[in-house]
Write a structure and sequence with these properties.
Low-confidence stretches: none
Structural class: alpha+beta
Distance between the termini: 33 Å
Oligomer: single chain
Number of strands: 10
Radius of gyration: 17 Å
Length: 224
């Protein structure tokens, strides 16, 4: 992974990307299909094709709109501007549960290029790791890794265990890998979070290192 940018830049960038992912990308996807989960794409995250073939994505510091051979992109400035480029209504269409990020369509979205690049690399590492992991634990019937807008992390479940890559949150400003068993976790020093185990971007150099953590967690759960 690249050298870590300033923590304030990283947090602000992650929050900006999260807002657009929720109030533009996931909002458009839900209105069109009823689905919520975004996909990892080169450079960030994006929607599956909408009914008219449009794909919306966040790539680095830009929002990208692809309709066949027509590709438009613009640097993120506000949620409203991103929605206008995408040709969709801003604001997540919720009923029972409010969105995780505030809906402030005209608030400036600070985005640091180095931070956006690091987060894109983190999602790419997560995608590669979870694809390899799905092959390795096929008998556990892993679900497709998706980025859900509430937490903005890439995750899947298999054998009543959640596996994923978070870009960071209020509890951990650094991106982190996690394993969260549905049942109460074993009581030993390996488990460093209330829900399971985490390892930050500083502790996970590549997919091989990430897989070592996943394997160790699964082995401990199997022997408990």
């Amino acid at each position: 992974m690249a050298e870590l940018p300033a923590l304030t830049d990283l947090v602000a960038t992650r929050q900006s990307l999260h807002r657009v992912a929720e109030h533009v990308l996931a909002a458009a996807l839900k209105r069109a299909t009823g689905q919520l989960g975004l996909l990892p794409v080169p450079g960030g995250v994006g929607t599956s094709p909408l009914p008219d073939g449009t794909v919306l994505s966040l790539r680095g510091a830009d929002i990208v709109v692809e309709r066949g051979d027509d590709v438009r992109r613009a640097r993120l400035t506000t949620v409203r501007a991103a929605a206008e480029l995408a040709g969709t209504e801003p604001g997540f269409p919720w009923t029972k549960h409010p969105p995780a990020t505030p809906f402030e369509p005209d608030a400036p979205l600070p985005v640091d290029d180095a931070s956006a690049s690091l987060l894109a690399d983190w999602f790419a590492l997560g995608d590669l790791t979870l694809m390899r992991w799905a092959t390795e634990i096929a008998a556990d019937e892993p679900t497709q890794p998706l980025v859900y807008p509430e937490h903005f992390d890439l995750g899947c479940s298999a054998g009543e265990v959640n596996y994923g890559f978070s870009p960071g949150d209020e509890a951990s400003p650094l991106p982190y890998l996690y394993v969260g068993p549905w049942a109460p976790r074993p009581q030993d020093n390996f488990w460093n979070a209330p829900f399971g185990v985490t390892r930050t971007v500083e502790q996970v150099a590549d997919a091989d290192a990430a897989l070592e953590v996943l394997r160790a967690a699964r082995a401990r759960l199997a022997s408990d």
